């Protein structure tokens, strides 16, 4: 546009509306133009609002009227204001800076030192000639420099300002120039576009049809200007010619292969057939290739015809493009390397193809059946297949195989014509390559799944075999206690199963799921599930730690089985007692994996049974604990000896075990008790039943008994010193019939059902188990004991022939039977002693019944006294019965008599004798000895009962063989008497010994005076008489036991008569004749018996005497010739 | 020259010149200081005061909102700062614009010719698009005559 250069600056204020208004105020003379300008300017402004490179500018055509637009910028010209500085700002800043600088300079000057001359000058106002002082000069210089530089700046500012008058025009020029530049570039781009069009035109071209030639050919059939080559047609091929050629080819091939190429044929190409003019090389499992020749010259190459793969899956027919490719490659190789090269090429190609086929199959598996457990990665040529993906988590070990090509080279690097490269699998198990794994897979019919299964089967077998090996080393399996079996399969991983017998009945199978590699523990149960979980979630190296899960499982299962079986036979499983782990460690073997705790109801609380389960077998422990409040401590532990290392917890076994454990506990308690008593004992094996063998304890009786196995009487051992204690079995008592303590079991036999009399213990409701132990004591003198019954007691039996006592001892499980045994032994000792005593006195005493608790003696009938009694009373005098009770160890023996027994009188004395040194022997001696006297006294007392108004008689027992009976005779009306008080007549009856024989000595002890009284006179005949078994001694009388009764009867007769007030008329001789029918024992004179016949009889009130201690004065005679009485507390 | 803003331009120029003059006076007074004794001191003082006033004036004028001073391209300030003549800058641009103008004119003429030739050729070679070609020619400032001429 030629009119683009404008001189007029009318549009110079286009960008500031305000300025124009100001201008309007300042210079009103230009208002007309301004109005016009403003209008145009608005338009321009609106256009400026549009983006500067807006498109519509480009299509703007030339404005038709330039003149109208002369004062305005045409819309297509962009006004450039960017980066322009405002002059006013410049000046403002400049003036401000100058002003600041000036101020600073003035200040600086004022601070500069003023020369002295100047000061003076100031004062005097006299002009000095020159002030060349350095201060002055520097001051001037500073001011000058400032002024100069500022001057220069201001000059520049003035220049700019001057120039700025033209800035509007220049600005327009600049805009114009930029517009022109843009236009120019548009033209250039137009040229460029055109060249582009030009360049693309050839492709858009269509050749022109050769109409001329076409016309010629179509009309005339030939075009003379086209060249004629003059080919000659070959003669058609005849089938015989073809056959000939082919046969010829066959021959040639055959010759060539057998003669020329013989050395060249690779080993793998030895299998070939020549047929139809081609040679077919067959490489088994890989491919088949048809080649032929095109020339007779043996140096010329073979030519490719066809290729077929001999493995599956593979394409049956090569696709065309592949065939072309292979053909060209094969022909090229045949040309350069001949047949070996051809083989090598095809062989490697086949291998690669096989690998990719494997990869394809694996990928398919990874998408299908084996989803999420395979990861296929193509390496350079090989392929890696990772299986059991995420089996052990992201960080766990990985397992994979790499299928690649083994070069087949020998290790020394030499070429081996026989070996060719082949497919090869490297197996990385848990991240480590397994070098010697012999992985076989089919390279002809390819199957990735079969390959994987083979590898996984090996992996599974490896894991299970490792577990198997580890388990096999455990004693439980090493000793063939439990069955352990592994079944492996080469190509089917799921058939590889490890069978472990965990208990006698249960067998688990461990296998691995091939696809995911997770363990399967069967058959399903809670424990198996837990083990399975452990295998799959916790273990990262099951080959190494897998066995521990099985061990744990075994222990769990075994404990379970014991618990279930045990529950039925009364074992109750309890939680682990609050024992310290350290304490337990010391007790239990080190390889213990689990401990099951049991308790038998009925046992003492401190005894537990613990089963320590380990792979070394289950061991059973009896553990005794001591419960001191802060903690529970083990006081003792015993291992229950069981032959099998892992016994099957059958019901039978467990119940036997219960018995056995109880036996062991009791045994242990016994031994402990013995040990604490420092008693010597020996253990000897004995068999009580088929399944339990527990040694019997042999111990010395002499150490057990306080009496040291010596009879008091004889000072000789009463039994063989050896006691055999054997465990017999268990009894369980219902809670209602629990004996409170073992001692109460030892009740006398006569008390009914000793086991059932006790009240149940409140805290022991579950019932109590009682161990039954047998103790055998052999007594060397069986003859004397033959009177013992077979069963002495409920719990004691006696075998007369061997002289053996068998005691049944009962105690709670865990309690010792030794105290009981001791007590029993003491009682047996007593029994034996008693029996011996009885045997000695068998003429006078008869044993009615004998038991450990008491002996019932019968006496009084074996001698003539029976007849006598029958005569005197007129009725059959019953046998007297004495019951000797020696119930308990601590308490004294008691002797008791039935009502009416004359011995009641001296029962206490007898008891004292019984508990004294003499024991039963003394009693047995005394009983028959004193019987007649006592019976006589009894009779006397009875006789006086009816004469209570005349007087009475009192019998005092001074010792067991010394009695005093006193008559107190009441005065009667008939009797002339000076005294009103009852008259006392006292007799003394005492057993004395003369020449080894017992004699009763009777005398009157209340001597009124030297000369005697009327009673003496009355007694005279008695004292002077003598009869069978007795003899009067003038003032007293003696009598043997068989005569004392008669003597006393006579005496009493006298006194009764006296009391009744008449004199007996009978003579002594008559009385003697009538009352002594038996033989007279010759007696020696001891004393003179005196008797007085006539005495007034006084009626004495009958006073029944009881053998109670308060009536018997303890005026015991300290010494008698025969006996000693020692009081026993 | 456009009269608008001329007053400001003139005024500010005068003020600038005052400032320069004052500075010059200071320089003169400084160099002549002491020679004339006391009067020089007063003169210098008054000169400095004068400069102060002048600066104030410039500042007031420049910063007054009414002042319409033009904008300056930054290249020009650099020009002047380097001590070169701003007119050269102006001339350069004028020169450039002139040359570009001539070039454009030539190019336009040449292209118009090329367009006509191309249009004619296309009209002949591709008669089926002749109408379109004609429209393009018209739109780009040519006339259809060219095509018609060729047709004949």
- The residue fraction in helices of chain B comes out at over 70%
SS summary, helix count of chain B? 6
Number of continuous helical runs of chain A: 23
> Can you tell me the residue ranges of chain B where pLDDT is under 50 for at least 5 consecutive residues?
none
What structural keywords apply?
heterodimer, A: 1129 residues, alpha+beta, seven-stranded antiparallel β-sheet, six-stranded antiparallel β-sheet, 23 helices, 38% helix, 20% strand, elongated, disordered N terminus, disordered C terminus, B: 152 residues, mainly alpha, 2 domains, 6 helices
Summarize the structure in words.
The complex is a heterodimer of chains A (1129) and B (152). Chain A is of the alpha+beta class and 1129 residues long. Among the domains of chain A are: 54 residues; 179 residues, no CATH class; 187 residues, no CATH class; 139 residues; 190 residues, no CATH class. Chain A contains 23 helices and 37 strands. In chain A, strands 30-31-32-33-36-35-34 form a seven-stranded antiparallel sheet. In chain A, strand 17 and strand 18 form a beta hairpin. In chain A, helix 21 runs antiparallel to helix 22. Chain A is elongated and about 210 Å long. The N terminus and C terminus of chain A are likely disordered. Chain B is mainly α and 152 residues long. Chain B folds into two domains: 69 residues; 82 residues, no CATH class. Helices cover 77% and strands 1% of the residues of chain B. The mean pLDDT of chain B is 79. The interface between A and B is large, with 82 and 67 residues. Strand 1 of chain A pairs antiparallel with strand 1 of chain B, so a sheet runs across the interface.
């Amino acid at each position: 546009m030629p009119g683009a250069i404008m001189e007029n600056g009318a549009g110079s204020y286009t960008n500031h509306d305000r300025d124009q208004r100001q201008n309007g105020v300042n210079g009103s003379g230009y208002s007309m133009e301004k109005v016009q300008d403003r209008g145009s300017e608005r338009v321009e402004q609106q256009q400026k609002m549009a983006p500067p490179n807006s498109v519509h500018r480009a299509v703007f055509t030339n404005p038709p009227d330039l003149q109208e637009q002369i004062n305005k910028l045409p819309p297509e010209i962009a006004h450039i204001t960017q980066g322009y500085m405002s002059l006013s700002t410049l000046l403002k800043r400049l003036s401000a800076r100058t002003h600041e600088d000036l101020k600073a300079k003035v200040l600086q000057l004022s601070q500069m030192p003023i020369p002295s001359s100047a000061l003076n000058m100031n004062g005097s106002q006299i002009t000095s000639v020159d002030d060349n002082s350095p201060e002055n000069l520097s001051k001037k210089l500073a001011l000058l420099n400032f002024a100069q530089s500022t001057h220069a700046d201001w000059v520049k500012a003035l220049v700019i300002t001057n120039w700025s008058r033209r800035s509007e025009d220049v600005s327009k020029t600049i805009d114009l120039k930029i517009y022109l530049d843009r236009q120019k570039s548009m033209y250039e781009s137009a040229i460029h576009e055109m060249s582009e069009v030009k360049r693309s035109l050839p492709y858009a071209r269509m050749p022109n049809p050769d109409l001329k030639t076409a016309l010629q050919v179509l009309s005339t059939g030939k075009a003379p200007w086209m060249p004629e080559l003059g080919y000659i047609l070959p003669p058609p091929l005849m089938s015989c010619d073809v056959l000939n050629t082919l046969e010829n080819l066959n021959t040639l091939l055959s010759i060539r292969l057998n003669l020329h190429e013989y050395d060249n044929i690779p080993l793998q190409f030895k299998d070939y057939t020549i047929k139809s003019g081609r040679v077919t090389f067959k490489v088994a499992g890989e491919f088949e290739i048809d080649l032929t020749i095109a020339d007779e010259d043996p140096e010329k190459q073979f030519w490719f015809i066809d290729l077929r793969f001999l493995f599956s899956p593979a394409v049956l027919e090569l696709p065309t493009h592949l065939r072309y490719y292979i053909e060209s490659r094969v022909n090229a190789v045949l040309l350069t390397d001949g047949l070996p090269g051809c083989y090598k090429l095809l062989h490697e190609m086949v291998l690669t193809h096989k690998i990719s086929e494997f990869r394809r199959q694996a990928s398919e598996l990874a998408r299908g059946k084996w989803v999420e457990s395979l990861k296929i990665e193509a390496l350079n040529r090989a392929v890696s297949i990772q299986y059991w993906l995420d089996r052990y988590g992201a960080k766990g070990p990985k397992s994979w195989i790499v299928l690649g090509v083994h070069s087949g080279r020998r290790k020394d690097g030499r070429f081996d014509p026989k070996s060719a490269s082949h497919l090869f699998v490297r197996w990385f198990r848990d991240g480590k390559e397994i070098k010697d794994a012999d992985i076989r897979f089919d390279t002809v019919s390819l199957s990735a799944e079969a390959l994987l299964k083979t590898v996984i089967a090996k992996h599974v077998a490896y894991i299970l075999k490792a577990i198997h090996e580890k388990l096999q080393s455990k004693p439980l399996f090493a000793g063939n206690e439990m069955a352990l079996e592994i079944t492996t399969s080469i190509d089917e991983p799921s058939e590889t199963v490890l069978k472990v017998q965990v208990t006698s009945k249960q067998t688990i199978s461990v296998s691995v799921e091939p696809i995911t590699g997770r363990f399967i523990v069967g058959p399903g149960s809670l424990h198996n599930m837990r083990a399975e979980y452990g295998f799959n979630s916790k273990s990262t190296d099951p080959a190494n730690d897998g066995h521990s899960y099985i061990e744990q499982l075994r222990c769990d299962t075994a404990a379970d089985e014991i618990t279930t079986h045990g529950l039925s036979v009364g074992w109750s499983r309890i939680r682990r007692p609050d024992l310290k782990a350290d304490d337990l460690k010391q007790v239990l073997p080190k390889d213990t994996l689990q401990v099951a705790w049991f308790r038998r109801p009925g046992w003492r609380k401190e005894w537990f049974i613990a089963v320590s389960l380990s792979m070394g077998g289950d061991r059973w422990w009896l553990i005794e604990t001591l419960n001191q409040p802060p903690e529970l401590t083990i006081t003792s532990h015993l291992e229950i000896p069981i032959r099998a290392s892992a016994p099957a917890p059958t019901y039978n076994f467990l119940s036997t075990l219960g018995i056995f454990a109880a036996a062991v506990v009791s045994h242990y308690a016994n031994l402990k008790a013995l040990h604490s008593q420092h008693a010597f004992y020996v253990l000897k094996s004995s068999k009580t039943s088929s399944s339990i063998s527990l040694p019997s304890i042999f111990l010395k009786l002499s150490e057990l008994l306080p009496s040291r196995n010596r009879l008091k009487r004889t000072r000789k051992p009463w039994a063989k010193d050896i006691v055999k204690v054997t465990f017999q079995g268990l009894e369980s008592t219902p809670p209602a019939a629990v004996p409170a303590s073992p001692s109460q079991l030892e009740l006398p036999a006569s008390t009914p059902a000793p086991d059932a009399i006790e009240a149940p213990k409140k805290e022991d409701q579950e019932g109590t188990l009682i161990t039954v132990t047998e103790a055998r004591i052999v007594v060397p003198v069986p003859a004397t004991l033959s009177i013992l019954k077979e069963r002495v007691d409920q719990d004691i039996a006696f075998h007369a022939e061997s002289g053996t006592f068998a005691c049944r001892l009962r105690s709670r499980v865990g309690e010792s039977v030794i105290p009981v045994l001791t007590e029993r032994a003491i009682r047996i000792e007593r029994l034996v002693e008693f029996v011996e005593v009885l045997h000695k006195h068998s003429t006078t005493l008869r044993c009615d019944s004998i038991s450990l608790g008491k002996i019932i003696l019968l006496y009084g009938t074996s001698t003539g006294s029976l007849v006598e009694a029958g005569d005197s009373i007129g009725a059959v005098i019953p046998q007297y019965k004495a019951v000797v009770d020696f119930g308990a160890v601590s308490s004294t023996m008691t002797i008791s008599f039935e009502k009416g027994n004359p011995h009641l009188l001296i029962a206490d004395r007898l008891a004292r004798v019984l508990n004294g040194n003499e024991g039963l022997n003394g009693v047995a001696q005394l009983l028959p000895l004193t019987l007649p006297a006592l019976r006589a006294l009894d009779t006397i007392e009875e006789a006086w009962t009816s004469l209570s108004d005349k007087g009475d008689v009192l019998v005092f027992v001074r010792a067991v063989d010394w009695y005093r009976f006193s008559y107190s005779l009441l005065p009667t009306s008939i009797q002339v008497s000076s005294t009103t008080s009852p008259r006392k007549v006292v007799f003394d009856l005492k057993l004395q010994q003369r020449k080894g024989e017992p004699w009763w000595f009777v005398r009157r002890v209340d001597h009124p005076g030297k000369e005697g009284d009327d009673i003496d006179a009355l007694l005279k005949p008695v004292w002077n008489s003598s009869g069978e078994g007795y003899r009067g001694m003038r003032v007293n009388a003696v009598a043997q036991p068989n005569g004392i009764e008669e003597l006393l009867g006579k005496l009493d007769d006298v006194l009764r008569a006296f009391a009744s007030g008449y004199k007996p008329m009978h003579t002594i001789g008559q009385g003697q004749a009538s009352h002594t029918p038996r033989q007279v024992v010759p007696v020696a004179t001891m004393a003179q018996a005196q008797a007085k016949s006539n005495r007034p009889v006084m009626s004495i009130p009958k006073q029944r005497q009881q053998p109670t201690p308060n009536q018997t004065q303890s005026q015991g005679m300290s010494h008698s010739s025969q006996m000693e009485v020692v009081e026993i507390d | 020259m456009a009269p608008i803003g001329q007053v400001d331009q003139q005024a500010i120029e005068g003020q600038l010149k005052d400032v320069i003059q004052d500075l010059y006076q200071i320089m003169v007074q400084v160099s002549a200081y002491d020679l004339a004794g006391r009067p020089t001191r007063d003169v210098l003082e008054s000169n400095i005061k004068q400069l102060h006033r002048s600066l104030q004036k410039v500042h007031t004028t420049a910063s007054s909102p009414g002042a319409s001073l033009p904008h300056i391209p930054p290249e020009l300030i650099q020009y002047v700062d380097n001590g070169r003549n701003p007119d050269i800058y102006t001339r350069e641009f004028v020169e450039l614009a002139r040359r570009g103008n001539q070039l454009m004119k030539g190019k336009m003429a040449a292209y118009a010719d090329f367009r006509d030739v191309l249009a004619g050729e296309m009209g002949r070679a591709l008669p089926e698009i002749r109408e379109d070609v004609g429209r393009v020619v018209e739109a780009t400032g040519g006339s259809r005559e060219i095509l018609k001429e060729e047709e004949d």
